[in-house]
Amino acid sequence: MNVFIALATTNDFLRKEFIKLRNGVALPANLSETAIKLELGTPEVGHWDTLEDYFHAKSACNDALLVIADHACATKIDFTPTALFSYRVEIPQRVENPAPFLKHHLSRLLNHFSAFKQLNARGENYLVSILPALNFDAEEWRQLLDKVRCETHSDTFIKEVEILLTDIRRKRRKPRRKNKDRTHFFIDDDDKHFLYGKEHHSQFETGEPHTKSCDLNGRFRFGRKVDDPLRHFNVNRGAGRNPSVKGAFVNCHNETREVTKTSHLNMFMNDFF
User: Fold this and answer.
1) Residue 142 is part of which domain span?
2) What domain of life does the native source organism fall in (predicted)?
3) Residue 113 and residue 155 in one domain
4) Which of 149, 163, 255, 272 is the most exposed place for a label (fewest CB within 10 A)?
5) Mean pLDDT, to the nearest integer, of 149-158?
6) Cα–Cα distance, 177 to 224 (Å, whole number)
7) Whole-angstrom distance, CA of residue 222 vs CA of residue 64
8) Beta carbons of 255 and 195 less than 8 angstroms apart
């Protein structure tokens, strides 16, 4: 497993010290049992409006994308709400003992990432974690997205995420009404039914007008490369044996598209349909 960790800060001294830690990072127990190749990086945050290009390039050869982001640089990673596992922290201008400071935050980042990875590695939690971020309409889902985007540094992060995952499974995982088929769907507040399909008959697009984030969001979720980015959700609405779908949906680069009535949409994790 190739794990990439970036430090996003304008503190040049800390950036240099961070790279020196490459061979001294202690891995959590459930990661140390796996063959891990760790890469550390320090992007020049002042050179770009966002770090989209930087992380997209790193995604080609890594299985996990993690970042320690100074609050002062947080907007640089807001190009994606879901692809990275971001640990946000206040980095002072002057750090007297850089190695202990950096090791402390690296350790917390890796411990929280490994615990989170273990929590949603398989089963229904995994399916919850890869729902289309923009089109699944539920308050507890939005809370989960915000929690992972902004609060991975919290001491209670794993406990709060576990509660949200349980809440989503309990409230949203249901069979279709007025249908003898007991297949369970994830059903949102807009009555959209999401079923993770086994088909491989389509794939999300990456050319114009799509962005690099469209591609990144289709392959990584919460810092981890997904098992099968070519699988998609089948999405429709309604009870009974002949459900259908129509209306306005947001695609992978936040454009609203109208869909005429059809049996279902093939919708990928990155919201491409």
Assistant:
1) 126-267
2) Bacteria
3) no
4) 255
5) 98
6) 34
7) 9
8) no
For the chain, how many structural domains are there in total?
Answer: 2
Q: How far apart are CA 157 and CA 150, in angstroms?
A: 10
pLDDT at 199: 87
User: Do residues 238 and 132 both lie within one domain?
Assistant: yes
Cα angle 26-115-128, degrees, rounded to a multiple of 5: 145
Residue with tokens 């917390």: 108
Q: Which residue has the tokens 């090791």?
A: 103
Of the three residues 119, 141, 160, the one that is the final residue of a domain is 119
Are 132 and 197 contacting, i.e. CB atoms less than 8 angstroms apart? no
Q: Phi and psi of 142, rounded to 5°?
A: -65, -35
Predicted TM-score of the model (pTM): 0.93
List, for residues 191-201, the tens digit of each pLDDT value: 999 999 998 88
pLDDT exceeds 80 at position 212 = yes
CA distance 168 to 181: 22
Q: H or E element: which one contains 40?
A: strand 37-41
Task: From 119, 154, 170, give the residue that closes a domain.
Answer: 119
Across-strand partners of 236?
193
Q: How high does pLDDT run on average in the chain?
A: 95
Burial of 270 (0-12, 13-18, 19+ CB in 10 A): buried
Tokens 């289709």: give the residue. 218
- Tokens at residue 132, please? 């289309």
Would you report the helix, strand and coil content of the chain in percent, each value rounded to 5?
35, 25, 40
